[in-house]
Amino acid sequence: MGSEVVGSRRPVGMWGRAVRRLTSSNDEFENAELADMARVSGCQTLADCGARTLVTLQGRIAMVKLSPRGQRSWLEADLQDGTGQVTLVWMGRRSIPGIDAGRMIRVSGRLVKQGRQVIYNPNYELLS
């Protein structure tokens, strides 16, 4: 009553969410929320994406850093969507207003897997 099982995973519904909150760690709970928000918004999750495909992802920026590459600088930001992490790289940029750690963002571009997952010069939309 109020809870059903989807596949062999966790129960859903009001009671399922309550049980999940009580039995999950904060990281697990936050990752599940990020993944759910991405799916509800119509975006893909990293777990569902293959290499060299065009993707639209949504998540939270975990870290921003400036990486010098010779005389040019690249702005890098690690995006977490609840199922994984991707590095966003803007070549030739030292900063972008609004690209800060903790910020929610939606990005689109080609996903490259070269030891780590990267999207170069992604289109982006700041969410919150």
Provide structural commentary.
The structure is a single chain. This protein has 128 residues and is an alpha+beta fold. The chain folds into two domains: 3-40, no CATH class; 46-126, OB fold (Dihydrolipoamide Acetyltransferase, E2P), CATH 2.40.50. Helix content is 20%, strand content 44%. It contains two helices and eight strands, in the order ββααββββββ. It has helices at residues 14-23, 26-40, and strands at residues 3-5, 11-13, 54-69, 72-80, 85-91, 104-113, 117-120, 123-126. The longest helix is centred in the N-terminal third of the chain and has 15 residues, at 26-40. 17% of the residues are buried. The model is unreliable at 1-8 (pLDDT under 50).
Write the SSE topology.
Elements: E1 3-5, E2 11-13, H1 14-23, H2 26-40, E3 54-69, E4 72-80, E5 85-91, E6 104-113, E7 117-120, E8 123-126
Parallel strand pairs: 5-7
Antiparallel strand pairs: 1-2, 3-4, 3-6, 4-5, 6-7, 6-8
Task: Write a short abstract of this structure.
It is built from two helices and eight strands, in the order E-E-H-H-E-E-E-E-E-E. By secondary structure, the chain is of the alpha+beta class.
- CATH top level class name of the largest domain: Mainly Beta
CATH homologous superfamily of the largest domain, by name?
Nucleic acid-binding proteins
Could you estimate the helical fraction of the residues in percent? 10-25%
Number of helices: 2
CATH topology of the largest domain: OB fold (Dihydrolipoamide Acetyltransferase, E2P)
Whole-number total of structural domains: 2
Task: Specify the biggest β-sheet.
Answer: 5 strands, mixed, barrel
* Uncertain stretches: 1-8
* Average predicted local confidence, pLDDT: 84
- The CATH architecture classification of the largest domain is Beta Barrel
Distance between the termini: 36 Å
Beta-strand portion reads 35-45%
Overall 3D shape: elongated
Order of helices and strands: EEHHEEEEEE
